[in-house]
Amino acid sequence: MRRFFILFPLIAVLSLVQGVMRGIIVINGIALVPDVALIFLVLFSIEFGRGVGQSAGWFGGILEDFAMAKPLGFTALVKMLIGSTFGLLQGRFMVGALMIALWSIAVATLMKYGLSWILAILMRIHTFQLIPMLLNLAIEMVLNLLITIPSFWITRKILKSAADYIRREQKI
Amino acid sequence: MLRVILTRNNLIMILYIALSILMVMSRESGLSQRITTSGVTVLSGVQRTMHWIFGATESGLQNVIEVWNIRKHYVKLQDKLIDYAEYELQAQRLEKENQRLRMLLDLPPAPGFRQVIAPIVTWDPANLQHGFLIGKGYHAGVSPKMLVLAYNSERRIFGVIGRVVEVFPYSAKVVPLSHPDSFLTVKIEPSGFEGLVNGGSWSGDRLTLRYVSRNALSLLSVGDMAVTTTVRKNESDEGLLISDLYVGEIINIVDNPTLDALEVSLKSAVNIGRVEHVILLIADDVAGYDADNHLEDIDSTKVYTDFYQLQEQSGLPVKPLGSS
User: Where does the record place the Rod shape-determining protein MreC beta-barrel core domain (chain B) (predicted)?
Assistant: First the structure.
């Protein structure tokens, strides 16, 4: 539960901010904003596990839907599935290697768009079109990979601080 | 098997999926619409504010960049303006120089003489009588006691203004006629009386002509011209004095009974205060050629040749004159 409250506020804030920014930084109908919430969700899910990952993903997704006027629960479902998937990797991967983080983010971005496409078809949501979606995917992939490098460094700092805090609390 | 499937995490996940599907399916319902609308309403306000901030920042940055560019242009234009001011000054100087040079180009030729034009390099600004330096010396053929002339473009005449007193390799010192130690014999035209120009006014445009015979009083008149003469030249002045060059014009004749001769005031032919270039006349080799002596040489040679021929024809031995 403590881990959830470390991750959730971070993802909540990021979801709201990027939801707002997506409406502002737009060139030729394409939002030039990376999905920072997704990056932190993936990195923290690998570290904290499935339970924290899926809960933080779902609540963060709800806020993102709220901010971006999407059908409520749609992004929540996608992010929850991503958080859950990468949470399964807990203990199998170390978040210490940058290349693993980059690969994870690339896979997560593809997964986000793939799941969105499948769920949109299943739920008969006709707001998603293939070509603009692929264009968005390409741009977001590049931006996400670029942002992963500083995010990776920040994640390590937060995790180290959190570990120190927990250790100190346990000693008391 | 059921225990493996119904873990806590799986149950929560199923709950989330169910909730999500429920929410998506009921997206057309009033509650979902209201939540979405309220979200859009709240966040669109934030978006508008941020958009305005971004827009203001962008326009502010554009303005700063524009001001920066204008400032760069302004600095460049200022530099150009300074350059143009310098060019204008140079153009003015060149124009003045052109005028002066054009005036020198208009000089009439003096047959038999080579005209050496020399700029006045330094003046004694305190006293024009003290003399000046000209920018030509003995490398240009200048020698001491030479007459120094200037051209009066208004009257279109050459006028003597002084004499060379000292010569250096590339410069020479000139003493003007108005100097108290300067002496030049002149002849008054048309009467032909002679006198000695000695000194004059401080400004150099008035000269004093002394020792003019009292007999000339009735023959002289204001407006007569004083010109140089070679009648009373010394041997050292050979080739340096040139006759019939204008010196000045009579403006006043003073018959002072206490003096044994007339004293005449002359107005200098050239206003020395306005002179920038002077002219020195150097006799050409042809002009300096002594024709009489040359003819004598030819004649004597011819006489000797004829004498030897006659000696040969008469059978006498050929013996040059003067040989023993």
Answer: 121-281
d(CA A45, CA A54) in angstroms, rounded, equals 8
pLDDT one-digit tens code per residue, A24-42 = 777 777 778 888 889 988 8
Candidates A24, A69, A73; nearest CB to B51:
A24
**Residue bearing the bigger pLDDT, B243 or A117:** A117
Kindly list the residues from chain A whose CB atom is less than 8 angstroms away from the CB atom of residue B19.
73, 76
pLDDT digits (tens, 9 = 90+) for B119-140: 888 876 555 557 888 888 888 8
Give the pLDDT of residue B286: 44
Q: In chain B, which residues touch A (CB < 8 A)? A: 8-9, 12-13, 16-17, 19-25, 27, 32, 35-36, 39-40, 43-44, 46-47, 50-51, 54
Query: Minimal CA–CA distance to B226: which of B241, B200, B207, B203?
Result: B207
Note the residue count of chain B.
Answer: 324
Answer whether A12's CB lies under 8 Å from A63's CB.
yes
Mean of all residue pLDDT scores within chain A: 83
User: Hey, is B122 helix, strand or coil?
Assistant: strand
How would you classify the pairing of strands B194-200 and B206-212?
Answer: antiparallel
- Nearest residue, CB atoms, B39 vs list A50, A54, A67: A67
CB B244 within 8 A of CB B269: no
- Closest to A20 measured CA to CA, from B301, B210, B48: B48
Of A54, A72, A125, the CB nearest to B13: A54
SS3 A148: helix
Q: For chain A, what's the residue count? A: 172
Share of chain B above pLDDT 90, in %: 12
Determine, for residues A20 and B50 on separate chains, whether the beta-carbon distance falls below 8 Å.
yes
CA dist B191 and B102 (Å) reads: 37
Using DSSP's 3-state secondary structure scheme, residue A48 falls into helix
Most B CBs within 10 A among A15, A72, A85, A88, hence the mutation to make, goes to: A72
Q: What is the ipTM, given to two decimal places?
A: 0.82
Total-model pTM: 0.46
Give the β-pairing of B172-176 and B157-167. Answer: antiparallel
Are B19 and A73 in contact (CB < 8 Å)?
A: yes
Main-chain dihedrals φ then ψ at residue B281, nearest 5 degrees: -100, 120
Minimal C-alpha gap between A77 and chain B (Å): 6
